[in-house]
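Dear colleague,

Thank you for sharing your sequence with our group. We've completed the structure prediction you requested, and as agreed, I am returning the results in plain text so they can be pasted directly into your records. Please verify that the sequence below matches your submission; if there's any discrepancy, let me know and we will rerun it promptly.
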Amino acid sequence: MEDGRRHRIIKVMVGEFARRLQSLAMKKDEMQKLAHQVAEHESVFQKSLMERLRVKEVMKSYEQILAEVEIRVTSTKLGSIDVEALVKLEMDNMTKEIELSKERLLNISFK
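Please find the predicted structure tokens below.
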């Protein structure tokens, strides 16, 4: 009688151990999935930071170009340079850069 009881207790304990082991395996899988998602989000975040820095550099470049145009305009006879055309050209270039940046950012997919 005593051996039968021990056998049942051992069988119950083995079953409980197996259930806990399976639960741990499932939790491990969930943690791996979450770690993968975090890595993807970090990658997207890094891409957006890099694009932000690129846009900042482009804007700095345009500011320098506009400052140079202003210096040229003030040092040249009025009427010999079409200032409006120069400004329009630079604004068109800036608009193209902004559109390019939007496209790059919109291609980033958040899951």
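Summary note from our side: The chain has two helices and no strands.

Kind regards,
the structure core
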